[in-house]
Amino acid sequence: MMLILDLVLIAGLVTFATLTLTARATFSSIVLFISTGLLIALAWARLGAPDIAIAEAAIGAGLTGALLLAAWRRLQPGTVDPESDAESTSGEQQGAGDAKQ
Amino acid sequence: MRSNEDNAGLPPVARLLLAIGMVAIGLVLAWALWSHSETSSSLAAAVMTELPRSGVSNPVTAVLLNFRAFDTMLELAVLLLVAVTVGGLRDPREVSAFAQVKQAASVSPLLQSLARDLVPIMMLTSGYLLWIGAKAPGGAFQAGAVLAAAAVLAHLSGRPWLSNPGDWRIRALLVLGTGAFLVSALALLLVTGTYFRYPPALAGAWILIIETAATLSIAAMLYVTFCAVVPMMPSRR
Amino acid sequence: MSTALLFGLCGIVLFVLGLYFALTTTEMLRRILAINIMGNGVFMLLIAAAYQHDVSGLPNTDPVPHALVLTGIVVAVSATALALKLVCRAHELAAEQREEGDG
């Protein structure tokens, strides 16, 4: 019974990792990576490491996800640069700001 | 493996060779794992015999904060280095934009109410994890991560805890973790003659103090790097 | 097949997958993701090695690799943050240069 659960968990991990790395859109990649992080937290719990499971759930799934999504949004073409947003506004930049939502 | 320097748009042949190389590496690693799967090299027994003298009953915390405290100190130094580097990479003009996040009229009310309810709970959870780390799974790293997540949530909901990334208070928090380890090591050098040998009677309280400092430092560092990466919100809609 | 061996093999698969995509992809954000997956594979190998049963069948895990992986996770997230910051900064500087070139 445990063996089946282990195999399901491992298959899920490998599948999610492969999907993360092969997804077309970078955004889907990031979301799949966050899901992989949650599955890895489950794997830590299975392997008798609850300390690491807590840390992974908070960091791997939470903070890394927030960081990656923030960076992704910043790297979008047409994103308002912080300095240009602070100092100059034009219709084009307003449009870019709206498009981010 | 040889072509990993200039791989902008690898030709299919190179990709195929690379894939074959990867499979070979995987097989070698799997063989190594297989052939060593019977040999046992566990330090669990050593940790368990020393555990009563460490001041805490959670073996992972004992390893992190007592047996291998030097590692943990250097790890906090790595975090400090990252925070300093990220600060050095900041565009000087960003500071002015930073304060404008405060207005944040664009944040959805749902996120605002979620943050209002969740942030205090997350702070409580962080304190609990820090306290329980002595006996059960938990500790400085988990508490710091949860605290940083609370800060990130507050930031995203338009109420940043930090209005200026160069604030002296945040800098003090960043060095607090490494500083606490260093001060404790030097104080112990004076008292007991070695850097990281805590007197068993005081070890519990000593570890809790250092862990608190480490928690605040880890949270500050994670939050500062998040602030450096997060795009500035458009201040006007 | 013991649990430790299974998860160890899973760690190796994750490591190799991450390495392959880190070397072949050209997009920076994806490369950072691949390196993170590689790191997770290494962590899984370590934790699987720490997972052992004593003679009575009770789990008898080794806390030293756990502590190593715990610090490793925090260092990995800070390295990721640094890499993301570098990528963002390079992107901004390239955009500024393009603007100067245009104007």
From TrEMBL, chain A:
* A Pfam family that the UniProt record links to this protein: MbhD
Boundaries of each MrpA C-terminal/MbhD domain copy? Answer: 12-76
Q: Name one GO cellular component term.
A: plasma membrane
Disordered, as annotated region: 79-101
Q: Which UniProt keywords apply?
A: Cell membrane, Membrane, Transmembrane, Transmembrane helix
Task: Give membrane topology per the record.
Answer: Multi-pass membrane protein
InterPro entries xrefs: MrpA_C/MbhD
> Transmembrane segments in this chain: where?
27-45, 52-72
Q: Does the keyword field hold Transcription regulation?
A: no
Main location class: membrane
Where does the UniProt annotation locate this protein? Cell membrane
Q: From the Swiss-Prot or TrEMBL record, give the protein name.
A: Uncharacterized MnhB-related membrane protein
UniProtKB/TrEMBL annotation, chain B:
For the keyword S-adenosyl-L-methionine, the answer is no
Q: What stretches pass through the bilayer? A: 12-34, 72-89, 170-191, 203-230
Keywords annotated in UniProt: Cell membrane, Membrane, Transmembrane, Transmembrane helix
Q: Where is the Na+/H+ antiporter MnhB subunit-related protein domain?
A: 111-222
- Which parts of the sequence belong to the MrpA C-terminal/MbhE domain? 17-88
- For the keyword Cell membrane, the answer is yes
- Where is this protein found? Cell membrane
Question: What is this protein's name?
Answer: Multisubunit sodium/proton antiporter, MrpB subunit
Q: Which organism is it from?
A: Modicisalibacter ilicicola DSM 19980
From TrEMBL, chain C:
List where in the cell it is found. Cell membrane
Q: How does it sit in the membrane?
A: Multi-pass membrane protein
**Which is one Gene Ontology cellular component term of this protein?**
plasma membrane
| Residue stretches spanning the membrane | 6-23, 32-52, 64-88
Keyword Glycosyltransferase part of the UniProt annotation: no
Report keywords, A-Z. Answer: Cell membrane, Membrane, Transmembrane, Transmembrane helix
Under the heading InterPro entries, the entry gives: CPA3_antiporter_subunitC, NUOK/Mnh_C1-like
Q: Which Pfam families match?
A: Oxidored_q2
> Taxonomically, which superkingdom?
Bacteria
Q: Which family does it belong to?
A: Belongs to the CPA3 antiporters (TC 2.A.63) subunit C family.
Xref: PANTHER family: ANTIPORTER SUBUNIT MNHC2-RELATED
Q: Please state what the protein is called.
A: Multisubunit sodium/proton antiporter, MrpC subunit
Show the taxonomic lineage. Answer: Bacteria, Pseudomonadati, Pseudomonadota, Gammaproteobacteria, Oceanospirillales
